[in-house]
Known about the structure:
single chain, mainly alpha, 9 helices
Amino acid sequence: MKSKKSSSVGVLYLKTYNLVQVLGWCYIFFIFSQHDFPTKSVANLWHSVKWPVIIFQHAAFLEVVHAAIGLVKSNPALTTFQVLSRVIVVTGVLLATPDNYAASSLGLPLALAAWSITEIIRYSYYFMNLIDYTPYLLTWLRYTLFIGLYPIGVTGELMCIYAAVNYAKSHPEAWSYLLPNAWNFTFSYYYILIVIMLMYIPLFPQLYSHMFIQRRKILGGDALKKAQ
Length: 228
């Protein structure tokens, strides 16, 4: 995702945005790394990182705007899918269920670890690219670590969603609008969660393969020489 460097104001804004995201995710990862898993519950971890995760994960919606207005060379649809999957987990799963469900799932530390490491590297890469100095090691990390981190993150997300499914199954009225009602309309939180989980089946392979395509472009053949 290289920026269009035609506007100094736009470039300054992107530098600031990416640097702030780096600092934000470094802070989240620091809290995560300090958590005493043997003695403290996963729910305690969520309480420690909840607001930073909410802020910096939702701030990623700006990237959809960046792509839509042409500030960066990214696919708006692809960016939307990538951002939405995480925001749904944060808002529609972790914040929408009691602490003894998604926030206590072992999927949470998996997701947080993958999200944090990925975002620290990704935003650092974008920032360094904007100042025209991108170390090859950073480029390699950006287009290599996803091979393991992406599946780990998706596994964590799905485990959190599954915990929310169990909550919705035992509490059918939660976040749902059931029949009969004056509008003759029904909305089921339980079935929405099921649909979201099923959507990972077609979307994950596409997004994952897209990253491999990008990796070949950046690290393979002539692109490798340019990166160096």
